[in-house]
Amino acid sequence: MTQSFPAGFEDALKYAVSNAVGGHLRHWKPLSKGAEHWVVTAETTKGDRLVVKLATQLAAVPSFTDAKAKHDLIRRLTAIPMSEMLAADDSMSNVPLRYSVQTELRGEEWFSRRWRLNEAERRQALGHLGEIVGRLHAPTREKFGPFTNPEATAALGALESHASRIIQRDDLRDQFIELLHRHGHLWDNVINPGITHDDLHGFNILFDPDQPTVVSAILDFDKAWSGPTESDFARMELWDGMTDPSFVASYRGLEPELPGYMDRRPYYQLLWCLEFGQTTAEHLKTTNQLAERVGFPRIDQF
């Protein structure tokens, strides 16, 4: 198991777990692996069940310390099911990897659960998800921008800054920001920043093992920011199987649609396409359909 991990990985994992909960590592299992970063589940001799993220200094992974501060704030402000982040360290002063440790929450990812539900159960599950997302978006923040460094700016300026951080290709980033400038009036009435998850796809939403239509956890707030929360809703509308009329009814019962949302929606959705940037036939088709709607240049490859 350890052969696909760098030297010192297990020692770093043991240290992170011990620092977080004071126990000793009993066993661990890899969940995912990226370029220079890893996610594993771990269990201690005391029975603690944890999720541990580890990354090298070179990994394109945001600060774990900032992520913990953000995660802690969201837990205080919202009434949604989410894990507790127990420890985070970017210093690499004691081990050769950055790390974060959080409690593991039981559940099945929505993209798996939805196929095992009948139509009535899917409606009920999406209705509950709409309520949870509405509760996430309900608290109003004072300023737009990153949680750790909010900006005294309007929604449009914050969205431009956010796009500049998440679109990797320079030409696409510049073209998208120029597009926002041209149509900036669309954001004139978006005045209240909120907790914007920015990654509410079906792998970041867990459903209870014993109650098939009940959301048990929202995961991975690493990308969250104080933004126009309607952008989360727009992305979920774009992704297959994430919304339906029951979701919309539950969500809109807590977060009414702002005037002009339908005009802003394709910009939020195009931003995700440019951020994700995959040269597949399906992704390019979706990207260029949205690009045509808002007057963005056609893209042949990312």
TrEMBL record:
InterPro entries given in the database record: AGP_Transferase, Aminoglycoside_PTrfase, Kinase-like_dom_sf
Please identify the protein, giving its name as recorded.
Aminoglycoside phosphotransferase domain-containing protein
Limits of the Aminoglycoside phosphotransferase domain: 28-251
